[in-house]
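User: I'm putting together a small comparison set for a docking exercise, and I want a reference complex before I start. The sequence is below, and the ligand is S-adenosyl-L-homocysteine. Could you produce the 3D structure with the ligand included, as structure tokens?
Assistant: Of course. I'll restate your input first, then give the structure tokens for the complex.
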Amino acid sequence: MRGRLSVIGFGPGSFEHMTQRAKEAIQESDVVIGYNTYVDLVRGLLNDQQIVRTGMTEEVSRAQEAVRQAEAGKKVAVISSGDAGVYGMAGLVYEVLMEKGWRRGEGVEVDIIPGISAINSTASLLGAPVMHDACTISLSDHLTPWEIIEKRIEAAGAADFVIALYNPRSGKRTRQIVETQRILLKYRSPQTPVGIVKSAYRDREHIVLTTLADMLEHDIGMLTTVVIGNSSTVVYDGLMITPRGYQRKYTLGEETQALKPHERLRPEAEPWALAQEEPHGAAVSAEAEAMVAAAPAAAEVVAAVSEPRRPGPLELALEALSLALGTRGAAEPAVPAAGGGVFRYEEVLEFAVRPGLAEKRLTAAQLAALAEAAGERGSVEYTPHHQLVVRLRTDDKETVLSRLRGQGLMLEPVGDVVQLKACDFCNLEKAESVPYAEKLQAQLGGLKVPKELKIGFNGCGMACYGAVKEDIGIVYRREKFDLFLGGKTVGRTAHAGQPVAEGIPPEELADILNRIVRRYAEEGHPNERFHKYFARVKELEQYRHQDAPVLVSDPAVCGD
Ligand code: SAH
């Protein structure tokens, strides 16, 4: 008689979380082989099976014994906690079989029965921390060199995976979890939510919600799984929740996100969503839309997108919520918050800052205000464009922005907009042209254009701030302006703008510039830089484009 080897993942430990197939396979077996504690966990299922109990470290002999018994014609159940294919017995059983030259069609029959792995069981107790791309890392260096584990932690940290740490710590192995925290703190905020679950769905279940900074202050052992959130994981009412997607950035001057909340859940915007399986032509159902309208502050609790006859996952979730809360159709928030208000996601806010058009110095108070605004989790980046770019997360962007403005800081949008880059007018000693710069800033600063457009504005013929090297250059000289158009600011073939006019009367400058820039804003192709646009249209405000000299290029030393 052909023997059978079932490698069974029995899930976290409770009877209810074991699959029907796992239960059957255990009951159908003649022999049950497993680590002592596991045999005790499934004892309620056993009738007269032979039991082979072994200690924790005897995995290889357990696998060999299982194969031996199956070869003798028995039905053998090898039991593993969680899923047998995740740091479990499945691979080991196959290794033993491979060594013996076993073939699928011959020899013992092998059946791997899946179970709920710790990443899933512990996640369910914490809330919904996994949700998005996640990985498991075992901190046990018993069979894996620590250098490899370290690399994986680095990679997972850098790539913003949600991480479930298995085998995080034992009596002897205590350094690994400390090192892991140190590595992850290089990539994640100390405030990153961390869930520590001991003995999920077992008698001594214990759940702790903490942060990356404080995680080591809690009991972590071999029966624990540690779940580390990604950069968008939040804590809500004692639950750890990772949103399905990343929040989009907001910049100044944009009323709404690039994707509006309800669009975030469109199949094309979230290709991994279940809704994608549905027929196209999805529309927000009227009911879901009404719920969103009734809960404007819960900005991210949004309408599902689906065919009216086939609701999508979020629509179903909203429907379930509304039934559970008894708020169906009522003008109440879709999600009640812990503290009486309504839960609000933090927004990622991005903007540029400078002390002024001509002013290049930041005061201590301004720096302090910036540091406070950015906080631990935000960043302040200095750029080649007389601007710092600030990225921060807040649920109250108006307050953040008005505090910075209150410090006299000039805030601007980033991206494909017009930016005026003025010089410092020799510390404002040559300040006659400043009002013209300010007028241009007021009219054009922040205007959306096909591609970022820098206008250099220099207050004397020295042009030491390099106005002629910008997309558009303006130089004040002898009470008039010189104009340069179509600088190519980057690349190997970079060149200055073409001098197209000298002696423009100051009162005409703003009008000319307005017409040029607004025409580019309207006619430029998406992503078309200004110099390319100028070359394409050949003429702007009667200024004719001239081709830049062609480079004589040397043949490369190593041939073409
Ligand atoms: N095959 C198992 C993992 C075995 S490695 C699975 O798929 O879940 C052993 C590690 O799994 C433990 O150190 C712990 O990190 C985790 N683990 C297994 N069962 C658990 C439970 N009930 N609660 C918390 N963690 C558990």
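The pocket of S-adenosyl-L-homocysteine is lined by residues 12-13, 80-83, 86-88, 117-118, 121-122, 166-167, 197, 199-202, 222-225 (CB under 6 Å). Residues 506-523 form the longest helix (18 residues).
User: Thanks, that's exactly what I needed.
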